[in-house]
Amino acid sequence: MKTSLYSFVTAASVALLAGVGHAPAARAAELESCPATLRHTFPRLQDEKPQSLCQYSGKVVLVVNTASFCGFTGQYKGLEELYARYKDKGLVVLGFPSNDFSQEKGSNQEIADFCENTFGVKFPMFAKSSVKGPEASPLYQQLAQLSGTAPRWNFHKYLLARDGKLVDQYSSMTGPDNKGLVRAIEQQLALPTPR
Questions:
Q1: Sign of the torsion angle spanned by Cα atoms 128, 134, 138, 139
Q2: Is-catalytic flag, 34?
Q3: Which of 2, 30, 58, 119 is the most exposed place for a label (fewest CB within 10 A)?
Q4: What percentage of the chain carries pLDDT values higher than 70?
Q5: Cα(181)–Cα(195) distance, integer angstroms
Q6: In a domain, 114, yes or no
Q7: What does each C-alpha distance from 90 to 123, 158, 167 come to in angstroms?
Q8: Is the residue at 195 inside a domain?
Q9: Distances (CA, A) of 40 to 22, 36, 53, 126
Q10: Cβ neighbours of residue 72 under 8 Å, at least 6 residues apart?
Q11: In terms of pLDDT, which residue wins out, 195 or 100?
């Protein structure tokens, strides 16, 4: 199942990045402006429609692997507060549910309902995927390579600058209200959007 999902995601990425339905000039501009870290496509959690992460190009991005039945699950509330507080300044939080630590057994719809009904999550969430080891999604393989650290548990965080470059990574113990994390986000938001 994972292989076929990633085959689908990879095929969707190629189609989206190839600009199916776009003029060649627009296609080239989109590829050029999308950082390598965002050149991935994932099914949206709620309806499994493919979503290119390139739509978040130029934003400060906080990538988080999540789970519904974890001691850190309460961080959903703080992540939503962080997103609500800074989204108009250019922050986006991207949630990637994973069962790699055996704490996310539900279907995508069950996860979506839990996140919305329990924590009022409005930040973008994607279909359940793997975040560590050889089965990790290409995005998480890339983030592990760039940072030298794969998630060791749920709610591990990677902060990307507006140009898509990795700023830092944070363990599960670093909550969304951590002063160092918030300061790093504010510093990145203060920088101009790359052209």
A1: positive
A2: no
A3: 2
A4: 84
A5: 25
A6: yes
A7: 13, 16, 15
A8: no
A9: 18, 8, 6, 12
A10: 153, 154, 155, 172
A11: 100
Pick the catalytic residue from 34, 54, 70, 115. Answer: 70
Q: How far is CA 113 from the centre of its chain?
A: 19
Question: Can you tell me the distance from the alpha carbon of 127 to that of 120, in angstroms, rounded to the nearest whole number?
Answer: 17
pLDDT computed for residue 29 by the predictor: 59
Count of domains observed in the chain = 1
Residue 119 one-letter amino acid: F
Q: Is the pLDDT of residue 25 over 80?
A: no
Beta bridge partners of 126: 44
Task: Answer yes or no: is 168 within a domain.
Answer: yes
- Judge contact between 152 and 170, C-beta under 8 A: no
155 in the Ramachandran plot: left (φ > 0), alpha (ψ -120 to 50) or beta?
Answer: left
Any domain includes 90: yes
Judge whether 115 and 83 are in contact, CB under 8 Å.
no
pLDDT tens digits, residue range 39-80?
A: 999 999 999 999 999 999 999 999 999 999 999 999 999 999
What is the per-residue pLDDT for 5? 43
Q: What is the pLDDT at residue 86? A: 98
Q: Residue 158: which of 145, 148, 168 has the closest Cα?
A: 168
- Mean pLDDT score across all residues of the chain: 88
Residue 94's domain comprises 2-190
Using the predicted structure, report yes or no on whether residue 84 has a pLDDT greater than 60. yes
C-alpha separations of 15 from 44, 51, 130 in Å: 16, 11, 22
Q: Give the 3-state secondary structure of residue 80.
A: helix
pTM over 0.90: no
